[in-house]
Amino acid sequence: QVHLVESGGGLVQPGGSLRLSCAASGNIFSGLVMNWYRQAPGKQRELVARILSGGTTYYPDSVKGRFTISRDNAKNTVFLQMNSLKPEDTAVYYCNGQRNINGILYEYWGQGTQVTVSS
Length: 119
Known about the structure:
By secondary structure, the chain is mainly β. The chain is built from no helices and eleven strands.
């Protein structure tokens, strides 16, 4: 089992920056695909960043160029640097870890951290 704990959310003005962190327990972190999702009120949860175990990253167009995901396998931690924040980035942000074992996808979720972008 993997426990994920997010931190770093808060209130920020439009154009500002925040850095989210997600600390993982256990000893399988380096092999996990790590993701950041977000969910705004009344909307579906959406993927905002992904990083593979080897460091390859993926971003949807909505955040590309503004968000950066990174990982420190030695510290079992994944980060999300968010710059040029917009009010539409307001959401609860969730850390997610995935691994595939014999065709079965195992997922682990954090409890979420609120990000509010408002003046």
